């Protein structure tokens, strides 16, 4: 589904990603871990198409097509979803209007008719149950005045609405208490299908108690320095990153 | 005139008066004299630097001497009457193509009465001046909504409204400025009686090389009065939006609250926004605040929306809608609010 080869990216002339290689197949969950400043969020932003970052090398193929050549909205319509670490507040724009436009623009892109108001409402209701989000939130402005937990649930709610092929969740667990974390993680698990894939970017192992990854990658100084299975996350939890970093720094 | 006649008949049934200034003066001479005095008094104490200096020439005449009395319209809501459904004032009508069209309105809402009035500037206008005198009696309540209803045009519109609020009266106004070459709205509210409240809001969308100007003066003449203002403007192309808002708190007008907020978004590097908040406070115990911002649409929000599959163009439109829409969200009439929001859409 996704194939990243030698991806390099920089911001304001400073190289953050120094050659990332990653392959994600349908049905898989990949976790990307690593210390602060290793480039995890940058990788997510580059895949989503944020223009602050300049891609200086490598390639990203998504379903056999050049992802880097697509606009931000094109990537989204093709099925790439980014769960934001800091979801943006949009005053005056209701969740319902926002989601309706998003869903219908995606449908239009795929040559489908827009959803009727009734069908859309029905979809909103059924999807809001997945993430146990209060239906009242959907009549409020996007993320405005939402608590930290509500914002993250709202990200998963949008993911449920848009049914992406590839979801990249950037530190979705940060700032969540244990209950919210469970709800978010359960939502992600419920949305998992054999034909979609998830990349979970996280700092802590605890999210991976709920979302069980097929692969765990350690990102350090802009490169993936180690890849393992879910046991690696447990090992990182007990031993920290130092042993990996030390090996890497000695190389 | 048939519109006016129809309106007059309908009004009569609801226990209120809607008709020409001439017939109003005939029927309610005392009320007419009282309201006429608002303008006279304002002229006498016109402060230097007031935007209200520029009020069109017809301002100086007593309104009952208006050359074309039929152009003047009076709305009178007697004591205790609730006007129910909205009253529409058409400024200029279908087929109005006069080079200059001036009109005066007198609106009186007596003690404990209430009304909702929409003021529509007609599409065919070229150059238009409107002066409205509004008197709210004790405990009266009035909401007004003012907008231009035509297609994009070269019209030049200037409207001035002077409002006097007696004790516990509640005045709420929204002006939606867009679609013309030049739109100026001047609003002065005198909170004359204790407990009087005013909410004065405006939304503007500037396109092409148009100029939109909103000037307000809120005079807290009495203690325990409160006012809120929210003006939001979006300037595209090479348009100019300007807000000049003055809050004046008279000596002894203690325990008043006055808040003013003016936010502007520039959509192009040729567009301009001017914000002039002014506070003049001569009382000691007051809560006053004002804030002005001029900025661009949030890049973060645009990226967020685009990441959900919304095209950049649509995302901009939705953001502008949301920004402007907060003004309409405060209106009492949700249907009209929705229509105005549609009209203001980029």
Question: Which helices and strands appear, and what pairs or packs with what?
Answer:
The complex is a heterodimer of chains A (251) and B (346).
Chain A: E1 2-11, E2 14-24, E3 29-33, H1 40-48, E4 54-62, E5 65-66, H2 72-78, E6 80-83, E7 90-94, H3 95-109, H4 117-130, E8 141-142, H5 148-162, E9 166-170, H6 178-191, E10 197-201, E11 215-220, E12 223-228, H7 230-239, H8 242-250
Parallel strand pairs in A: 3-10, 3-11, 6-9, 9-10
Antiparallel strand pairs in A: 1-2, 1-4, 4-5, 7-8, 11-12
Chain B: H1 2-13, E1 17-20, H2 21-27, H3 29-44, E2 73-77, E3 87-91, E4 100-109, E5 114-121, E6 127-136, E7 141-148, E8 156-165, E9 170-177, E10 182-191, E11 197-206, E12 211-220, E13 226-235, E14 240-249, E15 256-266, E16 272-281, E17 286-295, H4 299-307, H5 312-328, H6 334-344
Parallel strand pairs in B: 2-4, 3-5, 4-6, 5-7, 6-8, 7-9, 8-10, 9-11, 10-12, 11-13, 12-14, 13-15, 14-16, 15-17
Antiparallel strand pairs in B: 1-2
Helix pairs in contact in B: 2-3, 4-5, 5-6
């Amino acid at each position: 589904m996704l194939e990243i080869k030698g991806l390099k990216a920089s911001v304001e002339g400073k190289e953050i990603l120094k050659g990332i290689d990653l392959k994600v197949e349908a049905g898989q969950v990949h976790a990307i871990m690593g210390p602060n400043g290793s480039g995890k969020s940058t990788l997510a932003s580059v895949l989503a198409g944020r223009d602050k970052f300049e891609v200086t090398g490598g390639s990203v193929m998504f379903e056999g097509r050049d992802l880097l050549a697509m606009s931000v909205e094109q990537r989204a319509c093709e099925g790439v979803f980014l769960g934001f670490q800091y979801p943006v507040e949009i005053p005056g724009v209701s969740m319902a209007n926002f989601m309706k436009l998003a869903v219908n623009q995606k449908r239009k892109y795929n040559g489908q008719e827009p959803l009727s108001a009734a069908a859309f409402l029905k979809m909103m209701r059924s999807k809001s149950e997945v993430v146990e989000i209060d239906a009242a939130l959907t009549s409020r402005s996007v993320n405005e005045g939402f608590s930290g937990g509500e914002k993250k649930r709202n990200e998963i709610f949008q993911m449920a609405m848009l049914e992406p092929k590839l979801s990249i969740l950037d530190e979705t667990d940060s700032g969540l208490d244990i209950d919210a974390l469970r709800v978010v993680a359960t939502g992600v698990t419920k949305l998992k299908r054999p034909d979609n894939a998830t990349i979970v970017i996280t700092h802590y192992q605890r999210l991976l108690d709920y979302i069980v990854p097929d692969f765990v990658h350690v990102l350090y100084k802009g490169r993936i320095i180690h890849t393992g299975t879910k046991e690696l996350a447990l090992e990182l939890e007990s031993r920290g990153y130092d042993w990996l970093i030390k090996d890497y720094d000695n190389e | 005139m048939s519109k006016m006649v129809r309106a007059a008949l309908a009004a009569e049934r609801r226990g209120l008066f809607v008709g020409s200034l001439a017939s109003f003066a005939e029927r309610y001479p005392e009320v007419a004299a009282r309201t006429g005095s608002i303008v006279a008094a304002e002229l006498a104490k016109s402060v230097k630097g007031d935007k209200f200096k520029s009020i069109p020439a017809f301002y100086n005449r007593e309104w009952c001497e208006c050359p074309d009395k039929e152009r003047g319209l009076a709305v009178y809501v007697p004591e205790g009457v609730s006007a129910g459904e909205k009253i529409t004032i058409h400024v200029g009508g279908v087929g109005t193509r006069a080079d200059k069209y001036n009109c005066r309105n007198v609106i009186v809402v007596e003690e404990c009465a209430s009304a909702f009035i929409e003021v529509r500037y007609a599409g065919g206008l070229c150059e238009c001046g409107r002066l409205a005198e509004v008197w709210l009696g004790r405990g009266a309540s009035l909401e007004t909504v003012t907008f231009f209803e035509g297609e994009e045009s070269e019209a030049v519109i200037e409207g001035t409204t002077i409002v006097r609020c007696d004790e516990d009266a509640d005045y709420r106004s929204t002006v939606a400025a867009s679609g013309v070459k030049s739109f100026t709205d001047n609003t002065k509210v005198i909170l004359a009686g204790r407990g009087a409240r005013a909410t004065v809001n405006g939304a503007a969308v500037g396109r092409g090389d148009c100029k939109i100007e909103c000037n307000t003066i809120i005079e807290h003449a009495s203690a325990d009065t409160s006012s809120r203002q929210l003006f939001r403007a979006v300037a595209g192309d090479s348009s100019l939006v300007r807000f000049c808002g003055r809050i004046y708190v008279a000596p002894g007008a203690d325990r008043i609250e006055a808040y003013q907020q003016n936010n502007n978004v520039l959509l192009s590097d040729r567009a301009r926004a001017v914000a002039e908040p002014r506070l003049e406070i001569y009382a000691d115990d007051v809560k006053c605040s004002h804030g002005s911002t001029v900025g661009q649409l949030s890049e973060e929000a645009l990226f967020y929306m685009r990441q959900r599959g919304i095209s950049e163009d649509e995302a901009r439109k939705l953001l502008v809608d949301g920004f402007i829409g907060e003004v309409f969200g405060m209106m009492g009439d949700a249907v009209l609010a929705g229509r105005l929001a549609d009209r203001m859409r980029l």
